[in-house]
Amino acid sequence: MKEEIELIKDGKRLDGRGFDELRPIKIEVGVLKRADGSCYLELGDNKVIAAVYGPREMHPRHAQDAKMAVVKFRYNMAPFSTDDRKRPGPDRRSVEISKVCREAFNPVIMRELYPKTGIEVYVELLQSDAGTRTAGINAASIALADAGIPMKDLVSSVAVGKIDGEMVLDLNAVEDNNGEADMPIAMIARTNTITALQMDGRLTKEEFERGLKLAVGACHQIYELQRTALVTRYNQNYESKSKREEE
Amino acid sequence: MKEEIELIKDGKRLDGRGFDELRPIKIEVGVLKRADGSCYLELGDNKVIAAVYGPREMHPRHAQDAKMAVVKFRYNMAPFSTDDRKRPGPDRRSVEISKVCREAFNPVIMRELYPKTGIEVYVELLQSDAGTRTAGINAASIALADAGIPMKDLVSSVAVGKIDGEMVLDLNAVEDNNGEADMPIAMIARTNTITALQMDGRLTKEEFERGLKLAVGACHQIYELQRTALVTRYNQNYESKSKREEE
Amino acid sequence: MKEEIELIKDGKRLDGRGFDELRPIKIEVGVLKRADGSCYLELGDNKVIAAVYGPREMHPRHAQDAKMAVVKFRYNMAPFSTDDRKRPGPDRRSVEISKVCREAFNPVIMRELYPKTGIEVYVELLQSDAGTRTAGINAASIALADAGIPMKDLVSSVAVGKIDGEMVLDLNAVEDNNGEADMPIAMIARTNTITALQMDGRLTKEEFERGLKLAVGACHQIYELQRTALVTRYNQNYESKSKREEE
Amino acid sequence: MGLEIVNDVRTDYVCDLVKNGKREDGRGFREYRDISVERDVIKRAEGSARVKIGDTDVLVGVKVELGTPFPDTPDKGVIITNAELVPLASPEFESGPPNENSIQLARVVDRGIRGSEAIDLDKLCIEEGEKVWMVFIDIHVLDDNGNLADAAALGAIASLLNLRIPNERYGLTGENTLPMRDTPVAVTTVEIEGNILVDPSFDEGNAAASSVTVISNADGTLSGMQKSGSGGLKEAQIAEMVEIGIEKAGEIRGKYL
Amino acid sequence: MGLEIVNDVRTDYVCDLVKNGKREDGRGFREYRDISVERDVIKRAEGSARVKIGDTDVLVGVKVELGTPFPDTPDKGVIITNAELVPLASPEFESGPPNENSIQLARVVDRGIRGSEAIDLDKLCIEEGEKVWMVFIDIHVLDDNGNLADAAALGAIASLLNLRIPNERYGLTGENTLPMRDTPVAVTTVEIEGNILVDPSFDEGNAAASSVTVISNADGTLSGMQKSGSGGLKEAQIAEMVEIGIEKAGEIRGKYL
Amino acid sequence: MGLEIVNDVRTDYVCDLVKNGKREDGRGFREYRDISVERDVIKRAEGSARVKIGDTDVLVGVKVELGTPFPDTPDKGVIITNAELVPLASPEFESGPPNENSIQLARVVDRGIRGSEAIDLDKLCIEEGEKVWMVFIDIHVLDDNGNLADAAALGAIASLLNLRIPNERYGLTGENTLPMRDTPVAVTTVEIEGNILVDPSFDEGNAAASSVTVISNADGTLSGMQKSGSGGLKEAQIAEMVEIGIEKAGEIRGKYL
User: What number is the ipTM of this complex?
Assistant: First the structure.
């Protein structure tokens, strides 16, 4: 929480973004063959890939739920995704993030349709640049849709934070490392329902409220990007299917 | 096993006790709400809490015994219970102690009444001062009774040791660290049946026999304290129950 | 892969062997009482003991194969078997060796005769001197036969390697540490079928082919030693049985 | 199995009560159970506190040991927060390494302390890059009757406020107290049937779709938040939870710290 | 259970095809699927490459960090090769520590690099007995559609060829590139119904009784071999596999390295 | 399941025999099976011994390596005793980390050696606080036919008596032998049907309600005891067990050490 680095100059952030500006987002749907659904997503310098398997038989049996599908969510950082090599395997941070992400999806996945099964969501961080869990949730949301898992709606996610005393959207790594606070949220954009919320650092109540508004607005933008990616994908599929049928 | 510290002066131990004197014991029965039975016990500077769950369904199933209840005993030291922070989780010492304690109770618990179930005894050392396993057994004994687990009798436990060439009762940490031998035992006081016995250090056969006698005698004292604590507790329960019924 | 040590002098290796010469092999069959089959084997300074259990019920059940027995193979080095004490428990090397050894036996064990069961092969390296996995396979082969596990044939194993530019048979530790390549193989000698093959280091294609020939030849020698050990053992059993019947 | 059915019945009971504006134990929606804080309960620890909120019973012990700093912060001490949900404390807890619940509990408490900058980590440095104080905050849950987060966080800050730096033990001299710069307090609220309840009991915690822990400081700023549970919340509900969090934290701080 | 039956059916199908001289995807027995190698895909890694062979997708990242040498090789750097078969990549993979398949994959790739002496470990020494470069080669499988070994080995050598030594990060000066002395390439062939097929697809890998990975160098020498699978092979078959291995490695080296 | 029933039958058989004053193998109650001690069986170990008691077969290897002392005993060497109940030795043993049985076995052997002060730990110190000898006593059970404790303890002391300190390996000079100050010997007795039997066979070990291992020294003093098993014992029985323990230890010491 040092503030030696000047993060805002002339009203712009170091990477030229305005306070309420997202990093560029790139989405590819259906990138993996073995997975039932998948998505590759870039959020600034974050590179993340999400895969979904299921609903399928749940092991071990005692972990089954007789009334609904059990959602498993595994957030994992590749060893080379960070400046210092990350030892393979789950650490405390990734266990907590996996829990928060799983809970972010529980309100939308129609789990009651698939009792006794498991729906498994795997998120691999290939390159990290702060906001990894939000990138992971956004990608997972699309991978779930790509897998055909019935959902009430997509989940969209973004972080806000405080740098140089200002509330700004979607911190990158330099901002996160030198900022005063970071607050990732996930929400069902269409109904303005927040399904994940964490806060680190120090914020006044007013800053918190301002930040929340900023994040909510950005989630609507992300939702549109997610929808567009899915629609494009389905049109492709439809076209290639139509083509095949014509031939 | 250095003997630089003089542990006995003028026939008294450093804390003023005589050779055959126990440290002060404090017992509270039924201190936890979630557990089926529980006991908080102080033995000198030892602070220990024991809880009992069961008889209840045993997991995993292949660990069940078709003919009787399986007793699980877990002795655990809180990380802050020792001078050097203890890393959480079982170490070799606590695994061995857990085994010895479990076996100390096997002769008294009427396990054949509850086939296929598990009876779980948990002992947490909150503050340690030598003799922790004996404090744990004494507390567990009461917690088992408090949980209503049918037992042939209570188990009582104490250690004897050798300091400055003398056999004395119930070593504290300074004595244990600078003494020549330590021997914890557990017994069914009413029938003079020894159910646990370990010895560390070096003793002649005569010292061993003298020590054993000392320990056996002290277990009778402890048994009385255990009984009293339970009777007081039952009277309280009876009184409060009677009161409720009067109201 | 340093070559500072001269490993070949006057056409002989440091231990006096010729290029195509095996180290002395000593075999004892049926050395353990609890195991269903066992074998103690020395290959030069390697000392290895193998035990076989089964076919017996397979745990956990989900690891069973409904159509055939599952072979488990555990190669383990005793902590004192190496110059630097080996930490107990499996490491990556022993996990890989265990897999390779298990696969070396899969073609010969008549697994389809014992569906749902497990056949467990345990190899303990007591003293190591390079070529440990080949010693282990040779011992395991005899232990399997001693346990009465139906096999199409014995498996025999040896390594070849390159030292001071020459392809030689059955490297010892000094040769292995200072050599250029090592190639352990396992085979069904009678049918010249190779069931395990690994190569480390650097070899030309011609060296590889020459080495393979050398190894194949040596496996036939080893096969004869294995057969002889088993025949001797069965004769002993037969004799002692006959004797008992006579008495 | 049996347990699950019991939990379902209890959840229904709690929800019905809440719909009628009531709670199991007769409390108001914004009312805490009785709180007690007992300090310096563990001799061997450099700081300790046993916190009870109703029947929930949490013991926090803080050990301070000499160690080496992290390479990227050579001039700062180290705080390590750990929570053990030992099976003594609940029929739901199992032996074994920390699971997601104990990890989340530890990390939320840790976050509040770090976010508030209550401890000046620079003051824990003895020799840059070589020797710093390592502060181990160990949360030991004894009886889980709901709302572990608030009890654990309160135990942690209470323990830290009475911390004795063990200079003598390591042959060092210097101040044995650590001046604390803030007093973060956690307040957990849950959403049940559209209502916001503070300090959930065990059954209320189970019945709630969402739970939010808000950690706030003496000046009313926030130094940590965590939503958990499988439900969603509206912005207005979160705002209400933050409001309650700051208000209740002030009350608790005034009474118990 | 369901999966196993599907696998059996597929194995029969693959075997029938091979008996008739055919493969699932119409390839010749000695033909690879399409290969692509994308370099420097991970900014945070000192070297990286994403290799696709057909639908098989493997990402290799190499991190270079300062560390202490092993006591018995005080003047040499350290290579550590690790493979993660993350459950994202296949319905067969499970979370957890490396199993025998991921360990074998890592060790085979490692063996090829060591055997070829592609990296001069002496050049990774900074201060004898004290400071050397540790090279972590991490194989991250993204989509397992067969023949992981060849993809992983190709990703590893491609990553190493572009390695940047992070001198600045540690306040050191010196060459940032590591001169590579060789380019080991792995070629895996399988035996199915007496035929030798190169680059097995997922189903072919399952159908094969034996599989041999041959790693060879620019000069045609071998620097590693590994048979796996539960079948046996004749000398002549192995000779053929080595022959194919050397030939195909030359083609891949020429096109992609 | 099958195994359990067999065990019950054997237990009944053993008990019936004992009631009639007999043992499975015709021994007297105070009679050991044949013992053999083979020394220096492992070249790579600094000390080793293979002990057989009847068909029970235990190999003990001692490795001596240079290491750093524990902070609280900077002038003393370190003894670490470990036991592996490898699945080769018994159908009951399983692969995996040490369980309570192997831990107890190692700790009882360790206790005897420490209690007797057989090794002068001060003599294992090379440079106070910096360099000491670490003595790793590894108990490797090969065939478990009962009474592992006595075989393991005998193997441990026999190995230590022939220990060679590997000074040369570390470029050190000095005495290569370690003068031993005592020879602790473990004697295990069990209680079956009110009788005390020495050196229990496998079935006797299973049939016994209680088992006591008594470790005693050359001068007849005790340096360790451990009761195990789920039965209770009277004072007189323990006294008898101690008596037998000291007597038998003397015999074993005389013959085998």
Answer: 0.95
